[in-house]
Write a sequence for this structure.
């Protein structure tokens, strides 16, 4: 059974998230498991503003997505502590994440016989861009 780990803030759920989860589950295969990490508020605030939606709600949203088998909290922005515990076969990454952190995760994954897959990032499907658009529309009212 192949285990795939993918992680998100999931403050705003958009098609980019769904595409990543769908592809991640496809890599896991029918008999595999997709484990989704949802960043805690503290983890998010290492790099971004505090999420509007609570961790519990964001985890519930992830759990409701058909491609997801297991949802776990991710206590740091980096997935490294979680992947060290879970030891997945595959870590899904985004090119929007810091290259240095991705490289640390890659080294760990290789040490356990796993690998990192970086899927394309769709800037048009960015939570930050969606939030900025909402704020801009509010200002124009």
């Amino acid at each position: 059974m192949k285990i795939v780990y993918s992680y998100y803030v999931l403050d705003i759920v958009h098609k980019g998230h769904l595409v990543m989860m769908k592809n991640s589950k496809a890599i896991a295969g029918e008999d595999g498991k997709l484990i989704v990490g949802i960043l805690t508020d503290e983890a998010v605030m290492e790099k971004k503003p505090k999420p509007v939606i609570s961790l519990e709600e964001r985890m519930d949203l992830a759990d409701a997505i058909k491609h997801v088998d297991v949802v776990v909290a991710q206590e740091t922005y980096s997935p490294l502590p979680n992947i060290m515990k879970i030891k997945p076969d595959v870590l899904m990454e985004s090119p929007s994440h810091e290259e240095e952190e991705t490289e640390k995760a890659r080294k760990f994954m290789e040490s356990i016989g796993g690998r990192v897959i970086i899927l394309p990032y769709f800037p048009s499907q960015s939570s930050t861009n969606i939030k900025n658009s909402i704020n801009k529309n509010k200002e124009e009212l």
Notes: The chain has one domain: 3-131.
